[in-house]
Amino acid sequence: MPQQADYRFSMGSDDVAHEVVRAGLEAFNVGKIGDYAYQDFALYARDAEDQVVGGMFGHSGMGWLYIDYLWLHDSQRGRGLGARLLGMAEEQARQRGCSGVFLYTYSFQAPDFYQKQGYQLMGVLEDCPPGYQRIYLKKSLAA
Length: 143
What we know:
Blueprint: H1 15-33, E1 39-46, E2 52-61, E3 64-72, H2 81-95, E4 100-106, H3 111-116, E5 120-126, E6 133-140
Parallel strand pairs: 3-4
Antiparallel strand pairs: 1-2, 2-3, 4-6, 5-6
């Protein structure tokens, strides 16, 4: 029977340990699939007074654009701005050589909006947050 190693565990912020884990996983991944450096993505909409009324940000890598945040001011909802932002993001994804776009939303946000834009349901995490769902969506950019 193999002898169990003794480990010391720590929880909490540790910049050195964080970097060891990040670099270790990245090196493993690069060894399997090659370089996949992530590139940040940000797009903002401003009104005539130069106020931000909508925008999104995320990153691209591994052949996909990942949208982390998309927000519209209440006054801009239902006016086509969200669709325009998504369209511009998809064009940027194509320019970056991405095969698709991935995002998630919550059941109390805008899952129907994304599906109207051609995003397909990938999965649902129940009770995240409690009483709601986290909804995972993707859109292929293949011609």
